[in-house]
From TrEMBL:
It comes from the Eukaryota. This is HUTU hydratase. It holds the Pfam family Urocanase. The gene is Uroc1. InterPro entries: Urocanase-like (IPR023637), Urocanase_central_sf (IPR038364), Urocanase_Rossmann-like (IPR035085), Urocanase_sf (IPR036190). It comes from Atrichornis clamosus. One of its GO terms (biological process) is L-histidine catabolic process. Residues 2-214 form the Urocanase Rossmann-like domain. One of its GO terms (molecular function) is urocanate hydratase activity.
Length: 216
C-alpha cells in the first residue's frame, strides 16, 4: 500500500510497471519492501550489507534475485524497466554505493533510473549495527564497531551525509523519496546532512513521512 500510494500521489500513476523503487534493509526491518515492489508491479532494488540476511530473504521467496555487482544491477534494472517486468533484486552491498552509482548514471547518460526511493536500515539504532558505513566492508565495520565505537560513529555520520547527498541529487531531477519511519532523516540531520525543508523550521524535513503523507 505504501509503494502503491507513493506512486499514486507522487508519480500520478496507478500502474507502476516500468517504474523503479530503490531502498535498503532486508534484516531487522524484514523483506517486505522487495515483495511490495513485485506486488505493485515495479522494479525493486534493495541493498543489504549482511549476506546472511540477503540469502535468508531469497530462500524465503521475498527476493527474486541477488547480485553483488553494481554493473549487473544497473543492467538488470534497465532491462526490467524497459520491458516493464516486475522484479525484486537484492544488491549485496552498501546502499550508499548504489545511490552514488545511480547519480553517476544520471551524470554520464542523463538518465534518471529511479522513480521512487526510501530506506529501511535500522536507523533508530545507527551506531550499534543498525546502519553500516559505506567506507568499510561489512566484516571490517563489525570489527571496528567492537574495537573503536567512536570511530564507527564518525564513519556512520560521514556515510549518512553521502547517502543524503546522492538522494538529493536524484530528487532534484524528479525522484520521489520518503521516510519509512526508521529515523533515517533524523539521524541524517544529526550527522549534518542536508535534509531540512527549505523555508521551514528545523523540525521539518524536505522529504515526506509515509505515515502522514502517504498512508494518511
Amino acid at each position: 500500500l505504501t509503494v502503491l500510494n507513493a506512486g499514486r500521489r507522487y508519480l500520478k500513476a496507478e500502474d507502476l510497471s516500468g517504474k523503479v523503487f530503490v531502498t535498503s534493509g532486508l534484516g531487522g526491518m524484514s523483506g517486505a519492501q522487495a515483495k511490495a515492489a513485485v506486488i505493485a508491479g515495479c522494479v525493486g532494488i534493495i541493498a543489504e550489507v549482511d549476506e546472511a540476511a540477503l540469502l535468508k530473504r531469497h530462500k524465503q521467496g521475498w527476493l527474486m534475485e541477488i547480485s553483488n555487482n553494481l554493473d549487473h544491477c544497473i543492467a538488470r534494472l534497465r532491462e526490467a524497466r524497459k520491458n516493464k517486468i516486475a522484479l525484486s533484486l537484492g544488491y549485496h552491498g552498501n546502499v550508499v554505493d548504489l545511490w552514488e552509482r545511480l547519480v553517476h548514471e544520471l551524470d554520464t547518460t542523463g538518465e534518471l533510473l529511479v522513480d521512487l526511493g526510501s530506506d529501511q536500515t535500522s536507523c533508530h539504532n545507527p551506531f550499534n549495527g543498525g546502519y553500516y558505513p559505506a567506507q568499510l566492508g561489512f566484516e571490517e565495520a563489525k570489527q571496528l564497531l567492537s574495537t573503536n565505537p567512536g570511530k564507527f560513529r564518525t564513519l556512520v555520520q560521514e556515510s549518512l551525509k553521502r547517502h543524503v547527498a546522492a538522494i538529493n541529487k536524484l530528487a532534484d531531477k524528479g525522484m520521489f523519496f520518503w521516510d519509512y519511519g526508521n529515523a533515517f532523516l533524523l539521524e541524517a540531520q544529526r550527522a549534518g546532512a542536508d535534509v531540512v525543508k527549505k523555508g521551514a523550521n528545523k523540525t521539518e524535513f524536505r522529504y515526506p513521512s509515509y505515515v502522514q503523507h502517504i498512508m494518511g
